[in-house]
Amino acid sequence: MNEISDVHRNGIHGFVSLKTESKQIGMMTLEFSDKNNKLLIDRTEVIDEFKGRGYGKMLVAKVIEFARENRYILVPYCPFASKVLNETPEYSGTFELPQG
User: Fold this and answer.
1) Could you give the CA distance from residue 14 to residue 30 in angstroms, rounded to a whole number?
2) Under a CB-based contact definition with an 8 Å cutoff, are residues 45 and 81 in contact?
3) 3-class secondary-structure state, position 89
4) Secondary structure (DSSP) of 26-88
5) How far is residue 43's CA from residue 35's CA, in Å, rounded to a whole number?
6) Are strands 73-76 and 38-46 parallel, antiparallel or unpaired?
7) What string of pLDDT tens digits covers the 100 residues of the chain?
8) Global pTM value
């Protein structure tokens, strides 16, 4: 069984992880900007043997849920997260594209 963690935060940095019963299989790293209410997605990573099974999308969905509950605007610097956000109609309005 796979288990996705809650969003963990330590200062401006944060992460969410995905684990099987025995090992971590994926992680998304985050950066919080409370002054402008933004949550930056830095990186999404799933280990090779688990790629292509939708686990990266599960991480994105968890962060979307967190952002909506806490009224953050997502800024996807991670190419994978950006692609998922752009291609998923129900995520419309929850993110903005990075500047520059």
Assistant:
1) 5
2) no
3) helix
4) EEEEEEEEGGGTEEEEEEEEE-GGGTTSSHHHHHHHHHHHHHHHTTPEEEE-SHHHHHHHHH-
5) 22
6) parallel
7) 678 889 999 999 999 999 988 889 999 999 999 889 999 999 999 999 999 999 999 999 999 999 999 999 999 999 999 999 999 998 887 778 776 5
8) 0.90
